[in-house]
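In the laboratory, one determines a bound structure by crystallizing the protein with its ligand and collecting diffraction data. In a computational setting the workflow is compressed into a single prediction: the sequence and the ligand go in, and a structural description comes out. We illustrate the idea with zinc ion.
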Amino acid sequence: MRLGSGTFAAGCVVIEVLGVALFLRGFFPAPVFSGTERQAESPPEPSAGASSNWTELPPPLFSKVVIMLIDALRDDFVFGSKGVKFMPYTTYLVEKGSSLSFVAEAKPPTVTMPRIKALLTGSLPGFIDVVRNLNSPTLLEDNVITRAKAAGKRIIFYGDETWVKLFPKHFVEYDGTTSFFVSDYTEVDNNVTRHLDKVLKRQDWDVLILHYLGLDHIGHISGPSSPLIGPKLSEMDSILMKIHTSLLSEERGALLPSLLALCGDHGMSEAGGHGASSMEEVNTALVLISSAFERKPGDVRHPTHVQQTDLAATLSVGLGLPIPKSNTGSLLFRVVEGRPVREQLRLLHLNTVQLSKLLQENVPSYKKEPGFEQFKVAERLHRSWVRLYLEGSNSEALANLGAKVRRQYLDALRMLRLSLTRRAAQYDVYSMAVGTVLVLEALALLLLGVPQALSSRAELDVPLLSPVLPLLFGLLLLALAALHVVVCTAVDSSCYLCGLPWLAAGGVMALTAALLCAGVSALTRIFAGGQCLTQTPPQSTSRWSELGLLSFLGTVGHVLSLGASSFIEEEHQTWYFLINTLCLALCHQIYRHCFLGDDCAPQRCPHTGEEFDGVAVARQGKRAGPEGWELSHAPKDPSSLEALRGPERWMVLASPWLVLACCRLLRSLNQTGVQWAHRPDLGHWLTSSDHKAELSVLAALSLTMIFVLVQKRCSLTSKVAVAFGLLGIYCYRAAIGNVLFPWQQDNKDISKGITEARFVYVFVLGILFTGTKDLLKSQIIAADFTARTVGLWEIHSGLVLLAALLLRPHNLPVLVLSLAVQTVMTQFIWRPLRHGAAAVTVMHYWFGQAFFYFQGNSNSIATVDISAGFVGLDAYMEIPAVFLTAFATYSGPVLWASHLVNFLTSEASSGSALRRACFCYALVCSVPVSVYIVMVTSLRYHLFIWSVFSPKLLYEGMHLLITAAVCIFFTAMDQTNTKS
Amino acid sequence: MKDTDIKKLLYTHLLCIFSIILSVFIPSFFLENFSILETHLTWLYICSVSATAVNLVLYLVVKPNVSSKRSSLSYKVTRFLKCCLYFLTSCFFFHVIFVLYGAPLIELVLETFSLAVILSTFTTVPCLCLLGPNFKAWLRIFSRNGVTSVWENSLQITTISSFVGIWLGAFPIPLDWGRPWQEWPISCTLGATFGYVAGLVISPLWIYWNRKKLTYKNN
Ligand SMILES: [Zn+2]
Ligand SMILES: [Zn+2]
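The predicted complex, in C-alpha cell form:
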C-alpha cells in the first residue's frame, strides 16, 4: 500500500498526541489525599489508664468567623510601604492591635481555584488542577466548609463564582460574581460590598466569606505598580475596618470572641499575572484579627512565614471542627497560645494524629519516617503529662513537661508536613514510560520515512502483507501483555494504565506493538537497501547549504536548550535569535545572487534540518535517479534575480532588513520571560489608562492595515465581510472600554460587548463558509485553480479576523506585522529565490514560534490570556471558551501554518509540495516535544520541575495538539488537491 | 610557493595572537585596577588598537597581495581615507545588527558600539588590509569557491570564526547564573575574541592539512 507522506505524518502526529496525553496523565501526580471514607472519629486525649475521658472535640475558639479573601493580595500590599500608605487601619492592627500576622506561602500553581482548595482542605492540589481551573467541579475532598455545614454552621458567601461551583448547596446565602471579565475591577467588588451592611447587622450566621476580585483584575490589566492599586487597597482597608468594628460591637454580649481572617489566595508577579512560583506570586498576606490575641503594648512582631495550607487546620480548630482528612498543614500555634496548656496539647495531638494517618495511607514505609517516630515520642510524653496533670502534681514540673511536649509536637508536625509535601511529587512511571515509548516510536517512524517522504513522489511504501510481520506483532503483543500484567499486579502500584479497562489497555499495547513492527520493517528495508549503497560513495557534504545547516543547527540547539530552566524561561530569546540569524543568512544569499550571480544552488536545502545523513542522500540519489531532488527546485534560469530590475530588485535587497526591523519592533512590544519581564515595553505603555487615545489610534490603524493586507486576494463578498468584521472589532473594543471613539471623551458605560462580538463572529463564520464553499466548488469544477487559491485565502483571512477579535488591542500590530512579513517574504524572498518546500516550511515554523512569543506569551501559565475565551459569551461555556483561548494563544503558529498552505498551493508548480511540507512540519514540531518528554523524565527531581518544566510540558502538549490539527488540515487540503 | 605562504601565514597569525594576549597583561603595569571584566571597555579598546596596529604592520611588511601597479601618494591617501570610512561604516552596521538582535536601543549605547568596534577590528580590518575597499571582492570571498589565495582563505576562516564566536557568545546571557561576565556585552566580546583567536590558530593548520585539495584560480 502506498501512503502519501502528509497522511503518514498526520497519523504519526496523532499517535504522538496520544502518547503525550498518556505521559501527562502519568507525569502530573494525583494529589495526596485520604481515600478512606470512614467517619473520622476524633482521637481521644492520650492517657495511661482510663483516668482521662476527654474524648469529644475541644470546643470552638471563636463564635463567628469572617474570611476576607482578597485575590492576589501580595504580602507587601499589607506589610510593605504600600500597606502603610494605603491600608492605615490594617497596618494599625498589624502593628499594635490584637492580631497575628503571617506571610503565607502558596505553592505553585498560583492560580485561584487550586489556592482556594488549598486554603480549605489543607491539601496540596495537583498541578493538573490548573487545567481544570476554568471548569471547577464540586469539591469532593474533605474540607472546612463541608465540615462546618455538617456541624450546623450557617455560612454566607459573596464573591468569586468559583466558590459556588466548588460548594453547591453549602451556603445559606450567596451571590457569585464572575471573574472572567478581567477588565472590570469596580463592579465585581461592589457586588460583594453591597451586601455587607445588611449582613453585618444580622445575627443569623456563623461564617461569612468574602472574595474580592478587583485587585487581581487590576494586576492583570496594569500590573502591581499601577496607580489603580492604591485606591483599591484603601477601599479594602475601609471594608476591613467596617467589618472589624461591627464584629467588636457585637462581641460585647457574646461568650466567645470572633475571628476576622484577611488573606490572599496568591500574589502577583511584577508583570501583574500569576501562576508561576516567583517570590511575588507565592507570598501572600495573612492577618488573623481577634480580641483573643491580646498583645501587650510595645510588643512588636514581624510577620512570620507559614504555609498557606496551615489555615485549614487553624480554621477547623477555631470553629471546633475535626481537621479535614487530606490536610497537610499544621495548626498555626500562635492562635491557640492563649488557651490552657491541656487544650493546646490536645489540639496539637489532634493535628498530629491526622497528619500521621494521612502519612500511613500514602506511604507504605511510614514507620521509618522521622516525623512518625517523633509523633510516637510526643504521644508518649503527652500521656505522662496527662497523668501528672490528673494527679494534680507540682505545677513547675508540669509546666516544664508541658513545654517539652509542645516542642516535641511542633517538631513532629513540621517533619510530618515535610514528608507529606515530598510525597505529593510521586510519578506514575509506568504510564509515563508507555507514553514515551509511543511518542518515540512515532518519531522514529517519521525519521525513517524521511528519504521516501521527501522524494519527488512524496509517498511511502507501507508493507502490510509481509509474512513475518504478523508473527512478530503477535509475539510483541504477547510480551507486552505479560509485562502489563506483571507491572499491574506488583504491590503498591496505582498507575493510570492499570486502572483502565482491559480493552483500552490492550489497545494501547497493540498500538505499541504495531508501531514497533512498522519501525522494524522500515529499518530492515533501509538495511536491505544499504547493501547496494556501498558501491556508490556517499555524496560529499558540500550539498549542505547555509540555510540547511542553519535550520539543522537551530533545531538541534533549540532542542538542547530545553534542558536548562533559564532557556525555557527565556525561550523567546532563542526564537528571536534564530529568526534574526535566518534573516541574515537570507540576506547573504540574496546579495550573493544579486551582485555575483552566484548560481551554486544555495536553495538546495532539501533536508529540513533533521537527522539527515549522507546515507539518506545517497539512497535518495539512487532511488530518484537522474531526476534528483525535485524538492531542490534546481533553478531553471539561475539568473532569475538578475532579471529583476528597478524597484523590485531594490525591494528584494531591502526585504530581509524590513523583516528584521519588524521583528525588532515587535520584540519591544511585549517583554516576556522572567529576567527582563519587568523592563518597560510598548505594550504596558499602550495599555495604561493615560494612553487610551494612542491605543485607539493604533488599533484603528492596525485594523485598516489588516484590511489592506488581506483584501487583495479575496473575492468581493468576503472583502465586504472582512471590512464589516474589522469595524465590528473596533466597536467591540470600544464597548468593553479598551479604546475610544473620536466623539467619546471618556467611556463611562462599559458593557460586555456581547452584541458586537457576536456580530464579528457572524462574519468570521461567513468568511470561513465562503472559503469552504469555494474550495468545494474548485473540486467539482476540475482544475479551477483560482477558486481554490481564493478559497484557501478566504479561510486564512477568516482566521486572521478571528485572531484580531481575540487578541488584545495592543497586540493588533503583531497581527499586522505578521501579515506584512508574510507578504514581503512571499513576494521578494521565497518566490524569487525558489526555496524548496522543506526550507519554506522550516522558515514558517520558526516565524510561527517567534510570533507566539511576540504576542506576549511565555512558558509560564500566567501569560495565558483567559479573557480571550470569554469574548462574546454571556456565561462560562467550556468548549467554546477553551477553543477560543487556545486559538488566541496559538494564533501565531496557526496563522503561519495556514499561510504556508496558501503559499504552497498558490505556486502553480506545487505538485507534491504540500505533502512534503506537511511531513516537514510534523517532523520539526515533534522532535522538540519527543526529546523534551525524555528530558523532563530525567529532570523530574529538579528544583524547578513544578515552576518551569511542568508548564512548558503543558505548552508542548498543547502545541503538539495544534500541530496535529494543522497536519490534518494539510492532509485534507492535499486530498482536495490530488482529486481536482 | 604555497608552503612558504603557509609558513608566513602561520607566523603572522602567531604575532596577532601574541598581541591579543599582551593586551590582556601589559596594561595592568600602567593602569591601576585593570582587569578584563571590571574595566572591560578599556581592555576592549586597547585590544582593538593593538590588533589593528599589528594587522597593519604585518600586511605592510609581508605584502601578501603583490600589487602590480605603482600608485601615487594621492591614490594611497584616498585609499586610506576610504578604508577609514569603511571601518566606521562597518562599526555602525554592526551596531545596527546588534540592536536588531535585541541589544537595548537607548541604554548601553557605548557598550554596544564598543562591541561593534571590536568585531570590526577582527573582521573588517583584515579585509581592508588584504582586499582594500572593494565590496565585490568581499562578497566574493564569502561565497562558496570564491577564494583565490591562501591569504584569502585564512581571512575567510578567521572572519567566519569571529562571527560564530560572537554568535555563541550571546548564548550565556539568558542563563540565571548572575556571573559578571554575563553582562552585556562582555560575553559577546569574549566570544568574538576567542573566535578570532581560534580562527587564527585553525586557518594555517586547516590550510596545511588540505593543501593538496586546495587549488586556487591564480596559482
Ligand atoms: Zn486569584
Ligand atoms: Zn488572576
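The radius of gyration of chain B is 18 Å. Keep in mind that any predicted model is a hypothesis to be tested, not a measurement.
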